Amino acid sequence: MEKIKLYNGKIITPHRIINGGCIIIEGGKILDVSTSDIHVEGALEINARGNYIAPGFIDLHVHGGGGHDFMDNELDGFLAIAELHAKHGTTALMPTTLSSEHQDLLDTLSVYETADVRNVKGAQFIGIHIEGPYFSMEQRGAQDPRYIRAPDPAEYQEIIAGSKAIKRWSAAPELKGALEFAQYLTEKGILPSIAHTNAIYEEVLPAFEKGFTHATHFYSCMSGVSRRNAYRYAGVIESAYLLDAMTVEIIADGIHLPPPLLKLVLKIKGADRTALVTDAMRAAGMPPGPSILGSRRDGLEVIVEDNVAKLKDRTAFAGSVATMDKLVRNMVEMADATLEDAVKMASLSPANIIGIGDRKGSLVAGKDADIVIFDDHVNIMQTIVSGKSIYVKSI
Ligand SMILES: [Zn+2]
Q1: pLDDT of residue 169
Q2: If we measure between CA atoms, which residue out of 215, 207, 213 comes closest to residue 237?
């Protein structure tokens, strides 16, 4: 079996940055991470030219890019999105749905199966993230109100029975039936995530105990401190801070969350319990202007300006147009994160949150050879998925 050697780079491991070392790849896996540049007979050599060599980025929440949305339910669209994000350093991602017609969702699950097999030039698919429709109407944000409702056991059991690819489901924990829903998800190995919610701490705690251990796009469409008559209540934001073991994900585009909030999340939750997610919609990697959130057939018209998607009346954001490289760069430049922490939030932390940290997320012998090479400003130079180079920046 052919070996590959990556050398002449600054290797970011979970514990340090190694200068002058090398990484040996065989059969799509990392065979060794060496602190010196050892000679490997017959290996294909990749010169990192002094750039950083980091674990590939893992995006747990992404709807589209390059003009496509996963819910267009087109095979070519799935592949194009995977390729677009791979150019920005993503080696694994979770196609994410929106509240939609039931049949549209079933179609997305079915296209995923085919796309997963055909996807050889893009970031790997690591399971579906269903976002909705079990949400709080008041916190729906850009989710289509026509479909928002409480969990329906007959419905979700049918959906889950029809696909093995579902690995995560975002819902509001305060709804009737949400705790039973969380228990069902957990039994099926699906991560329940708190999203589009008006819950108070007294509702979050039992939900957390039932498996709602992760907060979707932290701060966005989510309750903070509220007052009911004279009394104050902690919301989901305070709950996520209070419950140390709760993990969060942030859209670190510098727009959904301004720099002080990025710093606050990092300060309280830390890099181990925070994942960077793009939550990117179809306009990621496209010029500004009118776009559509959700499927081309049934989605909402939105406008992309100032590097973010907004509802047409500009009352709320409607998804981001960010890519993972930008989020890592922002955490360093806007939130004073170390590069190691910023990379961890884009790789090992998301891997651990979704339960694949044993095989992805860091440059350690035995893990998948999902690797990204980038310069001092996190401009992606090369992306490698399972030991296969799928993107090289032309110089
Ligand atoms: Zn989303």
Answers
A1: 98
A2: 215
Strand partners, 200: 235
CA of 279 to the centre of ligand 1 (A): 5
Q: Are 49 and 179 found together in one domain? A: no
For ligand 1, the distance from its centroid to the CA atom of residue 205, given in whole angstroms, is 23
Domain shared by 82 and 23, yes or no: no
Q: What is the mean pLDDT of residues 67-89?
A: 98
Instruction: Classify residue 133: in a domain, yes or no.
Output: yes
Is residue 143 predicted with pLDDT exceeding 90? Answer: no
Q: Which of 187, 231, 232, 237 is nearest to 210 (CA)?
A: 187
Q: Do residues 335 and 198 both lie within one domain? A: yes
The whole-number pLDDT of residue 144 equals 87
Count of structural domains within the chain: 2
Q: What is the distance, to the nearest Å, from the Cα of residue 151 to the centroid of all Cα atoms in its chain?
A: 24
Rounded to the nearest angstrom, the distance between the alpha carbon of 281 and the centre of ligand 1 is: 8
Give exposure, 88-125, as e/b (b: 16+ Cβ within 10 Å): bbbbbbbbbbbbbbeebbbbbbebbeebbeebeebbbb
In this structure, are 354 and 328 located in the same domain?
yes
Helices (H) and strands (E) in the chain, counts: 10, 27
User: Same domain for 88 and 108?
Assistant: yes
Gap from CA of 99 to ligand 1 centroid (Å): 10
CA pair distance 383, 115, nearest whole angstrom: 20
Q: Could you tell me if 20 and 33 are in contact, meaning their C-beta atoms sit under 8 angstroms apart?
A: no
Residue 169 counted as domain residue: yes
Under 8 Å between Cβ of 66 and 84:
yes
Per DSSP bridges, beta strands 29-34 and 44-47 are: unpaired
Does pLDDT of 217 surpass 90? yes
Residue 8's domain comprises 3-53+373-392
Choose the catalytic residue: 72, 279, 325, 370: 279
221 alpha-carbon distance from chain centroid:
17
Residue 319 CA to ligand 1 center (angstroms) comes to 7
Question: pLDDT tens for residues 339-371?
Answer: 999 999 999 999 999 999 999 999 999 999 999
Range 53-78 average pLDDT: 98
59 in catalytic set: no
Query: What span, in angstroms and rounded, lies between the C-alpha atoms of 236 and 233?
Result: 10
Round to whole Å and give the CA distance between 92 and 277. Answer: 12
Q: Are residues 101 and 116 in the same domain?
A: yes
